[in-house]
């Protein structure tokens, strides 16, 4: 790999960023680590005002105008002056239908980043005439889920102020990402860091990555291509999960995670396995900072033969607490310490709560239109982060309930398999709410229609007991 000099002001990366930089260097055209969000604006916004709003956001958040390079001292980033990168791109697409517009959005999300000179951020306006889609795409090396919502809050607030003839009131954050990088280095040099390393070594010892049976053989080189199935849970089930979590004195995420562990156990027969949980390592002082404040932690399942779903949920809650208490120890070092025994996880799950969002975005995340600068603005769910592992579930908890995005590797799984997996996951969530004392082995994986289909395949289309 060629080593270059990023010039004055070169800043070190976090361990997680170093891992993402390596992945980008190995596959610079991959969109696996792209995050994206978009809004429909009616009527179409003033492009000049939106461009000035984008400039205000990139000026406030230096991570968005950072470029990256390899140096003799390791990978470094350098912050470019405002206006040198990350400017709004306007594409006039008059007459484009919704399907064509969606293809354009997908193409923008998939377009590679040139992190060495263009940076990790782009904003695009697809302008049809009567309405438009504004799109923000970032590379994970610079942002996380909360960062994406910070961007949208700041962008819409700046647009509203500019539309009223006022200057955007976006003050610089009280801290910056470099404080996190320094704190991470202090941890790794401390006895506390050594104790966390010991914990993760023990957590991984004797276990293995949970792995679902695939429809196709695993390729020698991961394709890192995927797609998403996004569905909203019925309101009654979302409310049941909330109530069950309160009754068991665990988090809603623990209920959802325990149901996933139970389903993996039933699908595979595995009793001791690891699933990853991307955890936030953002401290309150960094609430306003755009950056990569996420670290995968491993949650181990050890499921006995006669375990009930409630027991699995309670054990998951305790293991999640143990893992997140040590989330600041960088996962790349955990994987490095584990050696060459293969990936430590192939399945991941996370939950994003919109209660942390402000500026009206909590209801916007649920699809409720907002009024911004004289426009009606509706948030669009745009699939992203696809192909990172075999299967990942992102649960979004908003003001109205729960939505699940199930992302999967299309080189491994057919869509009907994933549809069935999702339906069975919902069945296990329902059991966690309605019948948590039932042993896992007695939770039905199929309903009557599934059984009829299976029997028909076997040449026995008769009655099902």
Keywords:
alpha+beta, 4-stranded mixed beta sheet, globular, 22% strand, Chloramphenicol Acetyltransferase, 465 residues, 2 domains, 15 strands, disordered C terminus, 37% helix, disordered N terminus, single chain, 6-stranded mixed beta sheet
Question: In brief, what are we looking at here?
Answer:
The chain has 465 residues and is an alpha+beta fold. 37% of the residues lie in helices and 22% in strands. The protein has helices spanning 15-26, 47-60, 98-110, 145-163, 177-188, 191-204, 235-248, 252-268, 309-324, 331-338, 361-364, 415-434, 448-457; strands spanning 11-12, 34-42, 66-71, 74-79, 88-92, 121-127, 132-139, 226-232, 272-280, 294-302, 347-353, 370-372, 375-380, 391-398, 401-409.
